[in-house]
Automatic annotation (TrEMBL), chain A:
Gene3D superfamilies per the UniProt record, alphabetical: 3.40.1350.150
Record protein name field: Uncharacterized protein Tsen54
GO cellular component terms listed in the entry, alphabetical order: tRNA-intron endonuclease complex
Coiled-coil ranges per UniProt: none
Keyword Plastid (UniProt): no
Residue ranges annotated for the tRNA-splicing endonuclease subunit Sen54 N-terminal domain, each copy included: 65-128
Family to which this protein belongs: Belongs to the SEN54 family.
Keyword flag rRNA-binding: no
Keywords: tRNA processing
GO terms classed as biological process: tRNA-type intron splice site recognition and cleavage
Gene: Tsen54
Pfam family, one: tRNA_int_end_N2
TrEMBL record, chain B:
Membrane-crossing segments per the record: none
Protein name: tRNA-intron lyase
Reactions listed under catalytic activity: pretRNA = a 3'-half-tRNA molecule with a 5'-OH end + a 5'-half-tRNA molecule with a 2',3'-cyclic phosphate end + an intron with a 2',3'-cyclic phosphate and a 5'-hydroxyl terminus
Gene coding for it: Tsen2
Known EC number: 4.6.1.16
Enzyme class: lyase
GO molecular function: nucleic acid binding; tRNA-intron lyase activity
Family in the record: Belongs to the tRNA-intron endonuclease family.
Superkingdom per UniProt: Eukaryota
Amino acid sequence: MDTKTLDSEIVEIHPKNGYLSAKELIAHRHSEFEPQSGGLKRTQNEGTAPELEELRRAQEQLRAQLSVPRIERLGGRALAIWNDEQKVAEVLRKDGKFENFGYSEQGRLYLEYYEAMFLLELGRLQLEYYGSVVSIEQAYVLLLGKLESEKYTNYLVYSALSRAGYIVVRHIPPEKTPEEVTSADCIWALLKETVGNEPVPDHIKTSPFYAVVEKRMEDIKELITSQKTEDSKITKESIDLEFDSRKRKANEKPIEEPPSKKEKLSIAGRSLVDQLKNEMSYSKLEEIFEKFDIIQLKSVDDTKEDTTELSSLKITFDLHLHNEGFKKSSPKPPTFNVIILPSQTSFPPHDEIAKIQNHHTAPLLVISVSESKQIQAFLYYIS
Amino acid sequence: MQFSFPCKRKRCFHKNVNYTPFPSCENGERHQGRFTGLSVEIIDPVQAKSLYDSGCFGKGSKSRGGPASGDEDETLLLGLEESCFLAYYLNTLEITNLAGSSMDFQVFLEAAKKLNERFVENLACYLYLKSKNWVIKSGIKFGGDFLIYKQSPRLYHASFLVIVQTSCDTDYYQSKNLKGVQRVAETSDKDVLLLTVHRPKDVLSPKVLQETTVTETIVRRFNYLTFVQSKQQ
């Protein structure tokens, strides 16, 4: 192994260890290391001699655990280089299933810091920094920063959720796209065009239904204008007409369309403890109950004024499930939005959650990272 | 993610199925309670039984639940919120002080506020939950303000541990406090219900509470591991 010093003298470095034999390699491939159980949890440092001794032993154990040689195949790893100017890891060679990692910019694939760190820890990535391989220890400093920061908690959460089996991606704010165009929308647009001379909007023209609907309307027009008797006989038996009539029926009542997705999802403004109002005892004595039913739920309208301002909460990640056909290029709405709560931070109160739910449709998962770096997820239900 | 509330029936079988949420006053006669400085005491055993059997109000002075010791000198002790509810909202209770003179809403409120500075907020939450047909007991043994039950503590386990917050004091949103009560509540299949009260400054009559509003928040611990595993099948 050769390196150049600042003086450009060639110094030869001999590795301290020799090469491992085949047997040793196999033995080290899956070395198990049992952590010592430490008895009861304690919350405060006492500074006593036995405690210091115990701490020293624990640290030694940790060091021993971390310095167990890891055996990995050199091949079968992706390769990335660290760009120190832009502070990003650029992927040079992909390996294996890589579709859920990284983001492309100007034809190059980059890894987020947490993705690079995660792949490094799994032994699936070789990160190089000015031509030399970065160790995991160095990568912690390089990717997550020297001081404990937001990046570190983000990485912890990313790693835990990825290992649990979620696809974790950087949060993408939902676009304010109109509702999906249905074939009914196409029919209405076409009718408006022919009857009212209104041009068909572009977002309807691009819908996959548009061409089909246009064709069918042409056919029907043809049918009506030509008035051939034999035609009607055939079409009566054909299944197509059955479908047709049913669709037409549905289109006659456009008001009955289900409310927008957002309305269906949001339960804001409703009490969560109303269940017992269905009981017999309530309906029998409803009058008495109503007499003192004077405290009301704070309605959503009261808070509406401040809903326009953005909440101080920040959604960091979106979670997707593996079996729902996730595609990086065209992500579906996520299963969860993740908010990360660093240790010592209070939980967001009702109004904060209400504000953020106004802008997002996926359920919020609040993940708290405790002082001991333990991760616990919480779900909010609010009125 | 739809919300479903925990509601577990108790194993022991009670024949008392006829559940009535409110005590009735026969011949317009109100129950007689004496404010002792800590709680309102019902001395007459017949009245005590009537209050406990219909609506599960109060607690026997010598029993865990309703008066059940059989001792003659056992009384029924009503909490501040429930006695206030019975006296000034249902009109089935008359509260007198130790000297024997009747206490009106204002006097009682002042006395209760001395014992608990958050009495008005607690009362607002009590009324809010009572109007939704819950049986409300003290939540002190689980570290909260109330425990709320379906029908009766004899028949069901409590569904929620209620914690009352004001809009300026959000103590229980602190990480360690919330996690603490959650763990305690979870071991007995309850959810933690945080009620935040927004209220006007002065309360002069029972009706003034009308301007008070509450918001409900339930924070539940979520096992992300089992969730993703259940979805993978």
